[in-house]
Amino acid sequence: MPEMPEVQGLVDYLGGRVTGLTVTKVSVANIAALKTYDPPIDALQGATVTGAARHGKFIDLATDAGIHLVFHLAKAGWLRWYDQLAPTLIRPGKTPIALRVAFDDGSGFDLTEAGTKKSLAVYAARDPQDVPGIARLGPDPLDETFTRDVFAGLLAGRRTQIKGVLRDQSIIAGIGNAYSDEILHVAKMSPYALAATLTDAEIDRLYAALRDTVADAVATASGKPPADLKDAKRRGMAVHGRRGETCPVCGDTVRSVFFADNSLEYCATCQTGGKILADRRLSRLLK
């Protein structure tokens, strides 16, 4: 799933290439991906892009028509950029392409989604805040107003596992499964630790890990074309997606906990005092 650093990389890339270009055509290949009808998506045709922005994991292309093209790539979505867009027609239901956008210089991009579970979402909106997912977002962890005390306030009283808190977009915007694994590994903290029980020292450590991990990942993604962002993300991971490999900090084996549709990765030596977490399908912690 693209998370904040990759989405920011896409925003930076698009902002440098489509600002000032005019949309000549918007083609919807998966009607289920289009979540709005007013304004109509066709209203973007003839509009000139004035900038690109990120809201959590949402990408927002603003236009001089007062309409924003907003999209969320979900778990299996991606953006494919073409300096010269192919003239071939897209056939609804016969392609992984959900949306195609063409510009007046011949360039364009496709939004694609792999797999059978389709969650990619596209919106045409007069204001990004009209998109429900954006309106519900918590603070951005890289914003200068996101201080240690603000972070501590978000954790206070939450008797939920810290892994879930970090992933909850209504609490903190932009962090998902992958970077929450990385943040917790840097902070040397169990994903099952309860947010409300963290000590001041643990909050300090987690806050620093969050800010540093996300900032470093954003810097790594900066300037890379969309085709290179996924590989850059994988290379930067210490534990996420590395089950069975060696922890780069302590040399222990990276382990996984599997859920219905995803997994988390962690190092027992670094994060849980050597305790191995059971598969959540067993609903218990191995002693």
From TrEMBL:
Alphabetic keyword roster: DNA damage, DNA repair, DNA-binding, Glycosidase, Hydrolase, Lyase, Metal-binding, Multifunctional enzyme, Zinc, Zinc-finger
Protein name, as recorded: Fpg/Nei family DNA glycosylase
DNA-binding in keyword set: yes
Entry-linked PANTHER family: FORMAMIDOPYRIMIDINE-DNA GLYCOSYLASE
Residue ranges of every copy of the Formamidopyrimidine-DNA glycosylase catalytic domain listed in the record: 2-120
Obligatory cofactor(s): Zn(2+)
Pfam families linked to this entry: Fapy_DNA_glyco, H2TH, zf-FPG_IleRS
GO biological process: base-excision repair
Family statement: Belongs to the FPG family.
Swiss-Prot/TrEMBL catalytic activity: Hydrolysis of DNA containing ring-opened 7-methylguanine residues, releasing 2,6-diamino-4-hydroxy-5-(N-methyl)formamidopyrimidine
Boundaries of every FPG-type domain copy: 238-272
Record-level Gene Ontology MF annotations: 8-oxo-7,8-dihydroguanine DNA N-glycosylase activity; damaged DNA binding; DNA-(apurinic or apyrimidinic site) endonuclease activity; lyase activity; zinc ion binding
Gene3D superfamilies: 1.10.8.50, MutM-like, N-terminal
